[in-house]
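notes to self, project folder thing:

trying the whole complex as one job this time. last attempt i did each chain seperately and stitching them together was a nightmare. two parts in total, labels are on each line so i dont mix them up again. if this works i'll redo the older ones the same way
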Amino acid sequence: MSTLLLSNIAVRYTGQPRPAVEGASLSVAHGEFVVLTGRSGCGKSTLLNVAAGLVLPERGEVSVDGRLIEGPGADRAVVFQSDALFPWFSARDNVAFALRLRGIGERQRHVLANELLKRVRLEGLGDKPVWEMSGGMRQRVGLARALAAEPDFLLMDEPLGALDALTRERMQTLLLDIWAPGNLGVLMVTHGIEEALLLGTRVVVMAPDPGRIAHTFEAGFSRRYAAGEPVRSIKADRAFAAARAELADAIFEGEPA
Amino acid sequence: MTLLHAERGLRDLAEPERSTARLPRRETPRRELSSRAISAITILVALLAWTVVTRLGLVAPLFLPPPQDVLAKFWKVMSQGFVDATLLQHLLASLGRVFAALVAATLVGIPVGLAIGTSRIGRGIFDPVLEFLRPIPPLAYLPLVIIWFGIGEQAKVLVIAIAMVAPIALSTASGVRNVQQDRLSAARSLGATRRQVIRFVVLPSALPSILTGLRIALGAGWTTLVAAELVAATRGLGFMIQSAAQFLVTDVVVMGIFVIAAVAFVLEFGLRRLERRLVPWAGRE
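result (full assembly):
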């Protein structure tokens, strides 16, 4: 059971008058699905990049079980909105690349990569060039690649942001299925209010100018999914609608109507 | 079912919108010539003018031989040769030099471009060198190359290679600098070392740009050919043209120019095919 801890993070980009993030603290434990949400420019992606070690904070520190983080690492795999796949590799080789970095031999890479593709429901599509794939398929390859690193934490920066509504719903259940076994801590950035509620065990709302954490909600809907309740029945629940309204209020708080 | 049909109908409406979105638009639809057709007509008109001018005797054959003479010379040099070598032998000699130079320039240019694109020190060292070399015409440094390296084959290859290094290095550097930041981040967060990032992400990312650089370099090298074959060559298209000029065999000069142009065209075409094979993803994302 490890815990990823961000304490009192401040980030200021050069040339920007206000800090992108100011005094943000956050923890993600194994088995948790933490969702960062908020209006544009509230610093949620910046905070995720700090957790990934891709942005170094001006103040504050990031640690995993007390071990200080000073750069990116395979224990915190990242899924990007742009998918960041390597078009010169096939789908399988994109996944196998992460396995290769772990020092796994060629033959085993092939087998493991196929298994991972199966896990993200892309069975039999390993030879397909990624530039011929749809956005949803590419995002799944990116997910399989991140999982190939066998991370403790999965960090996702608006992974479903560029997908159409139907693909998005399918991907949400896929993400829940990946998370449900409980051997991963997930930190995800999203603009989607419903998505945040459905997926998150905790929903963290950030506010802009300067980017800071404004509210934190404990949400139990993804636990209900993990316990076997279908997504449709969860979304039809009155409690879901009420929580949705409450979350929307928190996100748009202080904004002129 | 009806819903599907409705959607289909909407798409059909949308379709012609997209296909006529060309600028500028004409009020009345009229058959227009493609620019390819206009190019073909231009070439035909030039050939016709050339034939008429020479047929009417308006220009002496010494200055402009008629097209059929040039064509006849082409066959004659193909079979019997000119200045002790057939056209094919001249061509192969020139191609051999250009490709040897391409290999040398690639071996130098890609690492230099990589250094410029990835490191502050590399950029500091190589940028001024390239900026110095790039604008110098080959004829200007030819004498120095001969003084240093003699009049052998390697000097000729070197003259061509110098002209090729800058385009290859600069294209590589620009390709390296334009690598998507997210791809670098992805590789780093998967645990790739700096060396692995360069090998598996930076170089393949830059490959489309590198191939464009090779294409430009090949053009530049081919342009330098005549200069390289100015001194102490016994074979080569450039050498053939110069010898012909000395004996005022104008039809061989004209024929040589056409052969050089045709080969350049074929090389360009071949490299574009190679690009499509090697980097099919380029420009499709």
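what i see at first glance: Confidence is low (pLDDT under 50) at residues 1-21 of chain B.
need to look closer tmrw
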